[in-house]
Amino acid sequence: MKNAIVFAFFAAAMGSSAVAQDCAEGQRLFVHDHGQTCIPETPERIVSLRGEQFTAPLWELGANLVGSSGRVDGSKNDGLPYPRGAYDIFGLTFSDSDLTWVGDPNNPDLEAIAGADPDLILIPDWQTDIYDQLSIIAPTVVIGIWSNPLLQRFEKIADAGGVLEEYEDRLSQFNTQLADGRRVVEDMIGDSSEVSVAVAEAFDGKLWVYKDYAALSHVIDELGFVTPPVIAQLKDGNAELSPEILPQIDSDFMVGTYNIAFDQPPSTRLAEWDDLVPGWDEILHAPRHNQHLLLDRETMRGVSFRALENTLAIVLANIATRDFVPLNN
Amino acid sequence: MSRALYLGPPVVIGGILLLFLWHIAVGAKAIPLLTVAQSFWAFDQTEFDHVVIRNLRLPRAIFAISVGASLSVAGALMQGVTRNPLAEPGLLGLLAGASFAVVAAIGFFGLAAPGWIPAVAALGALGGAVMVWTIAARVPGGATPLSLILSGAAVTAFLGALITLMQLMDEQTFESLRVWLTGTLAGRQMDVFLWCLPWFAAGLLISFAVARQVTALAMGEETAIGLGVDIARLKIIVLICVVVLTAASVAVAGPLGFVGLVIPHVARLLVGSDYRLVVPYSAGIGAAYLLLVDIAARLVLAPVEVSTGIVTALLGAPFFIWLVRTRL
């Protein structure tokens, strides 16, 4: 047995040494959601293929971004492409920065990506069909979006981008704010686990519920609020459910989002609820008691500490610091 | 034939009625049958179960009946007039044309008012049909069943690419039409259906009226002429019917593929090739079929719902392959 352990240790040491030798000097082995890839220790030219997931956090942490995908949405940014999330939170545009537009997030332009001469490319897990093509251009890292909780995802992105130290500094600051937030909740509510919050939306005739909706869900969880079991038990970060189970998402507070650029202003979002289930605002406790909140999706959804801080402030102001009618009443 | 004539209608109508009752009695939420019944004779808006029955399940069942009947009749007419066993609105570009027109009208011209949708879809369906027919007629050998199917596939792919292009140019438009483009009966609005109701009614009534002449034409143009059928006039009337029925269906439920292909063949298996029977039986069986498909779409992964169009495609595609192998 002892020999076996020694052998295993030796084999592991040899193995890691062999792996380490696989990467050239100045590179390191990075484990991501599509395997392992040698990437630069400190990337100098990063291309992001998802604005709110990668461009926003890398920009916030000061990583060396040279390119990003970007959407075109009506008159937003004068009809020009914009990096989703990063534009909304930081005002980042392609015209006012050195960032190169490398196509639509759902249809990236491989030639533009190659033209940006990247040394690292970040893609979401639903774009692995182009992984091999991108890997020819530069080392490519895949980040699972809905499969990784927010901070785990954020840390992976920061690590890949060579800005892990900045990430940890900002995380420490945010955790201090969170601790203060928990004291506010304790002061005003007491036991936060007695307050339930459901993140749910009506969209295009469907009921969408979210267990993991970026900063919003993270803040709700960290403050100790609970979500209805039908949402907490979801395997993935979100799900489209039958509106027939609407009473199962009943909770003290309900939170949804609006998005002006997507032509989904708050009034439209509420009208979508009316269309989905007439009388929903009488059936559900939260809207019945004016405890249904709508947040700007883009400023909340982008992976960034700015989004976390904004969302923390909104949740504290709307849930923790005012009187409300509890569901159990 | 005479047996089918007497026994068929009560069987089909009874089947639709049973499936209709099943459709509104089952779903992601278990509701006692007594409550289902009460929701009709003592509706209470504050009772959630009543809301589920009256506002969620009932409209959806009505949409399923209307769309299933219309697409099936459209398919039957197309197969009869073109004598092409593979003819149906989806395979011959009408669904793609109607979908493209609706997306373009909403995206570029902001024509989102429910009253516009069927008219716009009709123009698009007509455009799709004309494109397919023109391409097929110009290839060597003319508009054969195979050339029509191939040009239908080409036009559908082309219009699909244009829809994708519009999405890239303005993603917000596509966001709100994403689910509709998969073909769904969920969350569709009653106001759109009410605007489409005259289209459904007119299309079906005229289809029933011309069914006798379609039977003559299905036997060959010379036979039809010999029987006194004005072929040119009949083809125009049938084209209008097909476009109207397809447009109304797309406006309500988006592009639901293969319904118009599968059902007329089932009807012919039951009642033979007399279109005086094929057309009404297609309507009845199509209505029952889409009710059944929608029950499956709601129950298979409950409480998650699957788009109805995905189920029709899953069922219709193997049938299409079988038809190609046996009838072409």
TrEMBL record, chain A:
Q: How far does the signal peptide extend, from start to end residue?
A: 1-20
Location comes to: Cell envelope
Entry-linked Gene3D superfamilies: Nitrogenase molybdenum iron protein domain
In which broad location class does this protein mainly occur, judging by the first location in its UniProt entry? Answer: other
A single cellular component GO annotation: outer membrane-bounded periplasmic space
Q: What is this protein called?
A: Iron complex transport system substrate-binding protein
Species name for this entry? Answer: Roseivivax halotolerans
Fe/B12 periplasmic-binding domain: which residues? 46-323
Automatic annotation (TrEMBL), chain B:
According to its UniProt record, where is this protein located? Answer: Cell membrane
In Pfam terms, one family for this protein is FecCD
Looking at the UniProt entry, the stretches that span the membrane are: 61-78, 90-110, 116-136, 148-169, 192-211, 236-263, 275-292, 299-324
Return the SUPFAM superfamilies for the record. Answer: ABC transporter involved in vitamin B12 uptake, BtuC
Q: Which UniProt keywords apply?
A: Cell membrane, Membrane, Transmembrane, Transmembrane helix, Transport
Q: Name one GO cellular component term.
A: plasma membrane
Q: Kindly give the membrane topology term recorded for this protein.
A: Multi-pass membrane protein
- Keyword match DNA damage: no
GO terms assigned for molecular function: transmembrane transporter activity
The alphabetized list of GO BP terms reads: siderophore-iron import into cell
Would you identify the family this protein belongs to, as annotated? Belongs to the binding-protein-dependent transport system permease family. FecCD subfamily.
Read off the PANTHER family from this record.
FE(3+) DICITRATE TRANSPORT SYSTEM PERMEASE PROTEIN FECC-RELATED, FERRIC ENTEROBACTIN TRANSPORT SYSTEM PERMEASE PROTEIN
**Protein's UniProt name:** Iron complex transport system permease protein
Query: What organism is listed for this UniProt entry?
Result: Roseivivax halotolerans
Higher taxonomy:
Bacteria, Pseudomonadati, Pseudomonadota, Alphaproteobacteria, Rhodobacterales
